[in-house]
């Protein structure tokens, strides 16, 4: 089964003495000829003693100090590459995954050679902790923003990785957040992703979770912030110059199934964010919101470019005048042509208030004009 893919099994573990042997035994039963690599990430329980009992049946990597799951996976990848494998299937040692689903992973990999296969759990089933379900939705959202790829489960540890693209990659995370970094950066290398439905079991009596909500969630949030910036300055431009992306952009802009109302809202929101007084962060804030509210991203970005350099002085100037009208109650017409950037800096509150008002007016005007034009020249799609 795995020989056709030249694949091995990788099991990272830390203090899972109650479930580890069950997972290894079931893996060996399903794929008896497979090479199984187990990385003992500094366990302090009886994990090491249990692993030593397997002798030469497994490839064991063990060290005394806990380094994190990401570090264990990286060491496992290096060992798999050194042993000459082309692919590796990772499976967690807490017994939440079913080794019996390995054939599903393999079958999907056979259909899509070179792709990352993601074992997708049903996070809505009974027994799944609410924090796990929320964390998965949170991760899926950021992954889509950073890669333009929609996946149902980006936090799964049940995956098949092609090893070729990993050989020359260097990663800067080593704990739970590594599993996010690796798939985002593989996506940036244009590696394909395919999900396959798998089973999952959450047994509170045997499962041990080492995820620390506060500290690990903070680390993941910092990583996502870095990856979003990387996407804006590296991945998005890279995608924009590919033919495949140009076709997708064309389809996104046209979207025959999209209503005129949504298109008009997308353009209005683009103008709103383009004028809103958060210079340098309009797209960083606006794109996630456009994704969240399912707006037309191409139309949004196009409209947000109202803040192109030639327009910036006009927007700032108009915002300042608008703020003067609101705060002072009138516009000093005698000083209209003598305003300087120094005046605006001294009256930043006046400018900010005016910019918020101007961005709101821009939204309303753009929405109304575009909606009327769309109604006149575009048929409303059938629901």
Q: What does this 3D model show about the protein?
A:
The structure is a single chain. With 383 residues, the protein is of the alpha/beta class. The protein folds into 2 domains: 229 residues, Spore Coat Polysaccharide Biosynthesis Protein SpsA, Chain A (Alpha-Beta Complex), CATH 3.90.550; 132 residues, no CATH class. It is 52% helix and 9% strand. It contains 14 helices and 7 strands. A 7-stranded mixed sheet has the order 3-2-1-4-6-5-7, sandwiched between helices. Helix 9 runs antiparallel to helix 10, helix 9 packs antiparallel against helix 14 and helix 12 packs across helix 14. It starts with 6 loop residues before the first strand and ends in a 6-residue tail after the last helix. The mean pLDDT is 87.
CATH architect. name of the largest domain: Alpha-Beta Complex
Q: Determine the number of helices (DSSP H or I, runs of at least 4 residues).
A: 14
Helical fraction equals 40-55%
- Mind describing the biggest β-sheet? 7 strands, mixed
Strand content: 5-15%
Determine the N-to-C terminus distance.
Answer: 46 Å
CATH superfamily of the largest domain: Spore Coat Polysaccharide Biosynthesis Protein SpsA, Chain A
What is the CATH domain class of the largest domain? Alpha Beta
State mean pLDDT (0 to 100 scale).
87
Shape: elongated
């Amino acid at each position: 089964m795995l020989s056709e893919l030249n694949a091995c099994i990788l099991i990272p573990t830390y203090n899972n003495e109650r479930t580890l042997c069950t997972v290894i035994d079931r893996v060996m039963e399903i794929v008896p000829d497979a090479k199984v690599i187990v990385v003992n990430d500094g366990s302090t329980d009886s994990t090491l003693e249990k692993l030593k009992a397997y002798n030469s049946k497994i490839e064991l990597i063990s060290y005394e100090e806990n380094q994190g799951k990401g570090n264990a996976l990286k060491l496992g990848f290096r060992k798999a590459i050194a042993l000459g494998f082309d692919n590796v299937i990772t499976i967690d040692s807490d017994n939440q995954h079913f080794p019996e689903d390995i054939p599903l992973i393999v079958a999907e990999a056979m259909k899509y050679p070179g792709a990352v296969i993601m074992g997708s759990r049903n996070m809505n089933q009974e027994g799944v902790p609410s924090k796990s379900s929320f964390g998965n939705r949170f991760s899926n959202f950021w992954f889509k923003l950073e890669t333009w790829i929609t996946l149902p489960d980006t936090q799964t540890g049940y995956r098949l990785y092609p090893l070729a693209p990993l050989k020359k990659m260097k990663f800067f995370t080593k704990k739970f957040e590594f599993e996010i970094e690796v798939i985002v950066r593989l996506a940036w290398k244009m590696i394909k992703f395919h999900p396959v439905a798998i089973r999952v079991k959450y047994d509170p009596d045997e499962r041990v979770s080492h995820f620390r909500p506060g500290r690990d969630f903070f680390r993941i949030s910092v990583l996502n912030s870095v990856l979003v910036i990387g996407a804006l300055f590296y991945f998005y431009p890279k995608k924009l110059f590919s033919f495949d992306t140009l076709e997708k952009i064309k389809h996104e802009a046209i979207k025959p199934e999209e209503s005129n109302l949504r298109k008009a809202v997308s353009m209005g929101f683009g103008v709103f964010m383009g004028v809103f007084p958060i210079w340098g962060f309009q797209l960083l804030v606006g794109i996630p919101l456009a994704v969240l509210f399912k707006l037309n991203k191409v139309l949004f970005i196009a409209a947000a470019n109202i803040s192109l350099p030639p327009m910036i002085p006009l927007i700032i100037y108009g915002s300042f005048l608008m703020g003067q009208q609101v705060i002072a109650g009138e516009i000093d017409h005698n000083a209209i042509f003598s305003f300087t950037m120094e005046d605006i800096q001294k009256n930043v509150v006046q400018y900010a208030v005016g910019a918020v008002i101007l961005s709101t007016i821009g939204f309303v005007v753009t929405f109304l004009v575009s909606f009327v034009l769309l109604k006149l020249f575009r048929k409303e799609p059938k629901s």
